[in-house]
Amino acid sequence: MEAISTSGTCKNITLLIKDKIPPTVIKNSFMVYILALEKVTKLVVAVAAAAAAAVVVVVLVVVLVVVVVVVVVVVVVVVVVVEVVVAIVVVVVVVLALVLTIIVVVLVVVVVVVIVVVVVAAAVVAVAVVVLVVVVVVVVVVVKVAVVVIVMMFIVDIDIDVDLFVPVAFLY
After folding, report:
1. Please, which residues have CB within 8 angstroms of residue 13's CB and are 6 or more apart in sequence?
2. 13 close to 33: Cβ distance less than 8 angstroms
């Protein structure tokens, strides 16, 4: 009887039959065996369900990790592309600013050179006018003195030496 209650295996059932145990006990023994198989089956199904759930969780985690990695890669690529575009725009703006600065400097130099040339030309013209005025004044004075001396020579009828002509001209 101990064999029926403790193990319920086929070997023990065979032993029970050999000992000529009544059929109800054997029937009960098969029931225990069937109940044990049912419990084992339920346990196997529960373990399989848990394993399937674990596999589903692992697959979901892997999918989530892949999605996160793809999103991070896309964000990094977008950020890098935006940074490159911004860097190119900054370089273009800096180059344009440099070119415009060079153009402004060249224009300022040209304007300064033109102003200097105009001022120098005005100074040269002013000096030329002054020299011309001085020359005209000297010529007018010399002509006046010469006219006065010539007139005096005829009126007074004095011979004026050439040596006296220059001092008389400056005295007049």
Report:
1. 26, 29, 30, 33
2. yes
As given in the structure block, the two tokens for residue 163 are: 């040596």
Number of folded domains that form the chain: 1
Give the whole-angstrom CA distance, residue 169 versus residue 68.
113
Residue 107 in contact with residue 130, Cβ under 8 Å? no
| pTM listed for this prediction | 0.40
Q: Which domain holds residue 167?
A: 2-171
The answer to whether residues 54 and 42 touch, using CB atoms and an 8 Å cutoff, is no
CA-to-CA dists, residue 91 to 45, 80, 95, angstroms: 67, 16, 6
Output the CA torsion sign for 113, 115, 118, 124: negative
What does the pLDDT look like over 102-125, one tens digit per residue? 999 999 999 999 999 999 999 999
In the block, which residue shows the tokens 């848990």? 50
- Decide: residue 149, CB within 10 A, 0-12 exposed, 13-18 middle, 19+ buried: middle
Query: Among residues of the chain, what percentage have pLDDT more than 90?
Result: 45
